[in-house]
Amino acid sequence: MKFPSSLLAGTLLLTIVASVAQQGSTPVKWAEGAPNATSDIKNGAKIEGLETDDVHIFVSLADVKETEYNRVWVQVSNHGKTAIDFDPQSAILLNGDKAVHAEVPDKAANSIQKVGEAKSQEMSSAHCNMMMTGQQKSGTSACQPTDSQMQMGKQIAAFSSQQAQWVRDNALKQKTLAAGEEALGAIVFKKDKKPANYILRVPVGGVMLEFPVSAQNKAPSYD
User: H-helix or E-strand containing 211?
Assistant: First the structure.
């Protein structure tokens, strides 16, 4: 039986597409000592790098101090001849069967600021010294926060606002990288409740890149 040439051509095209898709779905994994992998320590943080024919990428995980978030600092460069798509919101941290998805930067920043403001208000009002006074006996309260409590509350609010703004200013956004172009910034993830080892997956163009990373997942010290 003879098949129409158009059908054979279509079948061949589907086979090629499926083959390319299958190749693209195989992650490029960072491994110590591999020829396409680099490793460095700066400011106490481990920086891991991977190179493919078209993409050079460096990643480093650290905690966003006194918040419920970690951040992965990413530098990705397009060394190919054509444009590639990069969506940081597609990055995930894998811990066994559990996947931690990248946070929307503005939502994470707003959450950091709101938690800080709530803790600041609690520190400067809820924990004050109670004294029996004529005002209390008459049904009113003379309870006032101490100077140190007020100062701590202000510091927490200011620091949380600073950390929230850092996320807004440094978060990576989805973009198309032209040939020779690079992107540099942070991807934020919600912390787990205890230290953990993860596999960071970052898709760039049609390539999935994987890195082993660790997080202390430190809770804010004022909790």
Answer: strand 207-215
The alpha helices in 26-178, defined as continuous H runs, are: 105-125, 134-137, 147-170
Whether residue 44 is contained in a domain is answered as: yes
Quote the longest CA-to-CA distance of the chain: 105
pTM above 0.70, yes or no: yes
Please count the structural domains in the chain: 1
Q: What's the rounded Cα separation, in Å, for the pair 94 and 214?
A: 11
221 falls within a domain? no
Range of the domain at 169: 28-215
- Residue 156 C-beta-side C-alpha neighbours within 13 Å: 24
Instruction: Indicate whether 141 pLDDT > 80.
Output: no
- Is residue 211 in a domain? yes
State both tokens at 141: 């309260």
CA distance 193 to 98: 13
- The pLDDT, as a whole number, for residue 121 is 83
Residue 16 counted as domain residue: no
What pLDDT does residue 133 have?
47
